[in-house]
Each structure stands twice: as structure tokens, then as C-alpha cells.
Automatic annotation (TrEMBL):
InterPro entries: 4Fe4S_Fe-S-bd (IPR017896), 4Fe4S_Fe_S_CS (IPR017900), Fe-S_Ferredoxin (IPR050572). Gene3D superfamilies: 3.30.70.20. PANTHER family: ADENYLYLSULFATE REDUCTASE, BETA SUBUNIT (PTHR43687), FERREDOXIN III (PTHR43687:SF1). This is NAD-dependent dihydropyrimidine dehydrogenase PreA subunit. It holds the Pfam family Fer4_7. The keyword 4Fe-4S applies. Residues 1-30, 31-61 form the 4Fe-4S ferredoxin-type domain. Keywords: 4Fe-4S, Iron, Iron-sulfur, Metal-binding. It comes from Streptosporangium saharense. The keyword Iron-sulfur applies. Transmembrane segments: none annotated. The lineage of its organism: Bacteria, Bacillati, Actinomycetota, Actinomycetes, Streptosporangiales. SUPFAM superfamilies: 4Fe-4S ferredoxins.
Length: 111
């Protein structure tokens, strides 16, 4: 469930507001989204995936955490990194997940 929007990282691009399927965010006056309807979050991670500056943290739990964690103690944007979105990352779709293909050495399909 969405837990954190980092005010120090957010560049107010509205991507998370646009991609959220359940309209969890409201745009704040300064452009930084506010988690306005946390209970509507479906833990789909789309906001975290689309945030271009890794400003979001979606916890894997489907219920709110008992206490909102400190921003410095959570892996902001970890899902986006994991799927390989973002500059300089290998898109997850290009990583082999099945048996090694002949001639690939069994590693990623890109160098
Ligand atoms: S995890 Fe999905 S449902 Fe939850 S706030 Fe992000 S985009 Fe919306
Ligand atoms: S996608 Fe990231 S940078 Fe853009 S408004 Fe949302 S939190 Fe801010």
C-alpha cells in the first residue's frame, strides 16, 4: 500500500496521479501529490513504477503499516529499479527468466 511521497524528491510531474487506477492521490497546492485516499490503494505499484525520480514508496502489505515509516528508512523507488525502468537500467523484460538460450551464456539477453 502506498506509504510515502517524498517531498524532497518529487518534481510535481503528476505521473503518479495519472496512472493510479483508484485515484488515491490529490494534487497538492505546491504540486506534490497528497495521499488522500490510502484505503483505496490496490498495491499495484504503478505509481512507483512511473515516478521518474523515485519519490514513492509502496509497501508490499495490502493494509496500511501501523506507523508511517521514516522516508530515510525505506527503499524509495525500489520497485521501479527492480523492473529496470529508469535511465541506465536494464528493462526487466529483457532479462531471461527461462532456460538459457544457446549462445547467451544464461545471463541477461543484453550486455
Ligand atoms: S500502488 Fe497502485 S493503487 Fe496504490 S497509489 Fe500506487 S498506483 Fe494507486
Ligand atoms: S510521479 Fe513522482 S515526481 Fe511525479 S508527481 Fe508523482 S511523486 Fe512527484
Amino acid at each position: 500500500m502506498i506509504e510515502i511521497v517524498s517531498r524532497t524528491r518529487c518534481v510535481a510531474c503528476d505521473k503518479c496521479v495519472e496512472v493510479c487506477p483508484t485515484d488515491v492521490f490529490t494534487r497538492g497546492e505546491d504540486g506534490v501529490p497528497v495521499i488522500a485516499r490510502q484505503s483505496d490503494c490496490q498495491t499495484c505499484f504503478m505509481c512507483e513504477a512511473y515516478c521518474p525520480v523515485d519519490a514513492l514508496f509502496v509497501a508490499p502489505q495490502v493494509h496500511p503499516l501501523p506507523e508511517r515509516p521514516e522516508e530515510s528508512r525505506v527503499p524509495l523507488g525500489a520497485y521501479r529499479e527492480r523492473i529496470g525502468w529508469g535511465r541506465g537500467r536494464v528493462p526487466g523484460a529483457r532479462l531471461a527468466i527461462g532456460p538459457a538460450l544457446p549462445g547467451t551464456g544464461g545471463g541477461p539477453l543484453v550486455s
